[in-house]
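Preliminary data (for renewal application), flavin-adenine dinucleotide complex.
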Amino acid sequence: MLIKCPWCGDRALQEFSYQGDATVARPPEPADPADANWDDEWYQFVYLRDDPKGWHDEVWHHIQGCRKHFKARRHTVTHVIADTAPMSEELKGGDK
Amino acid sequence: MKKYSVFSLARNALDYHENWTEAWRSPEPKPEYDVIIVGGGGHGLATAYYLAKEHGITNVAVIEKGWLGGGNVARNTTIVRSNYQLEGNAFFYEKGMDLWRSMSQDLNYNVMFSSRGVINLAHNDAQVDAFQRRGNTMRLNGIDAEWLTVAEIKKRAPLLNTENMRYPVYGGLCQPKGGTARHDAVAWGYARAADDRGVDMIQNCEVTGMRIENGKILGVETTKGFIGAKKVGVAVAGHSSQVFQMAGMRLPMETHVLQAMVSEPIKPALDTVITSGAAHCYISQSDKGEMVFGGDIDFYNSYAQRGNYPIIEHVVTAMCELFPAFSRLRLMRTWGGVMDMSMDGTPIIDKTPIDSLYINAGWCYGGFKATPASGWCFAHTIAQDQPHDLNSAFRLNRFETGHTLDEKGVGSTPNMH
Ligand SMILES: Cc1cc2nc3c(=O)[nH]c(=O)nc-3n(C[C@H](O)[C@H](O)[C@H](O)COP(=O)(O)OP(=O)(O)OC[C@H]3O[C@@H](n4cnc5c(N)ncnc54)[C@H](O)[C@@H]3O)c2cc1C
Ligand SMILES: [Zn+2]
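Predicted structure:
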């Protein structure tokens, strides 16, 4: 599997470390810290995953290269990577 | 069911083994069952068997999208052990060891369970301490464990390299009653014995939806149409996230691919199971003579029953370091299976928020050894509508309540368990 680091281009899988689902987001702090919903949001953030069979937006770390984190849209059955992008940009492609 | 015995073997030899009956029927699904089990892997089949045997519930169907034993139950490296430290795990897996020992007689099917011992190698002082502590915990729990010196390990596995390597072997923790079993025989044995008690095996039938009304499940939509059920138990291993999505549930789980491989067969060379957590490799020899070995998952989410070459290279390198003599062997096959990696490395056997829908999932790399105990406990949970003591720590809501069971202590990183 070759992965295209947005900064370094196509590199071998061994150079990268997988960091998991890119769609889950740390819950913002509520006005009232005792808000019970906040517990539930944290539970969902830490533990629950869509785990799709198909296109998956995920975080990779070019740990043996430029050491930057970035996002990839990869298919979990074919392993085809439709797009990679810096963390601050949107992913395109796939049929997502 | 025709009983398998030395007499039936002799009788069938007379007509050249042409008149053996099929091991199980292949009926069309009935409109409704008392219990439907989704997934014809080891866990689903064992559940159906124990529902019939222990709870007298025989109006049961096992619904499998492919063929019985096409999933992980026949893709694993067959290591059976119960060397756990946390209480919630230890007694569950030890129940499994009891069932393994009597399984061939109980099912009238030779599952070739072999208590050849499982040895975990320690490669540094910290591992020696941790393994000895584990061994002590096991013994306090009444589970067999034995510390082996390097000389003792050498005696058990003369071909093992212990010194001439980057991280020499310092000793090892052995569970003498652990070992291996023939994986597909386990699936076939449970299927045949469950069929004999009236369970229907419905193969080539994929569950595509769940009919749920007023918070209660009424049956499943399948490629052979709707099949009604009073209760539905799901044991689909690597497809748990997908099937529970049909019930509107998100699980604390990710699906990852784990690879394994076998060498060409050779004469008996290794009569125990050697594992090295540090080198990421476990190895045993099959009864056919192949060296069977595997290592880590591929680390990224995957539903493909195949992985990438870097992991194969990594596992082979570790294997050759441990057993330099095997470096001359040709690799015959590699394959992968999709694993239900839970967020704390521990399985879930429980009820769900949906009435009469039950979950059996999250087995990570280690669900083969759990097959009998998992089926036994899941059958109890379904029949009694509540978990048994032995699976009372495997609750679905433990992540929400903070009662995770993290044997390795690595947190919610499913690819690290
Ligand atoms: C390479 C490898 C090595 C392993 N080594 C070991 C080991 O040494 N020791 C150990 O204890 N464990 C090991 N395991 C883990 C063990 O194999 C699994 O945890 C265990 O087999 C999972 O339970 P199962 O047998 O019921 O799964 P499976 O056999 O995968 O059964 C699940 C079944 O559900 C079916 N299914 C899925 N979706 C649907 C649907 N929608 N409708 C109908 N049916 C469906 C599938 O087709 C499949 O047959 C290993 C696994 C792998 C892949
Ligand atoms: Zn880079």
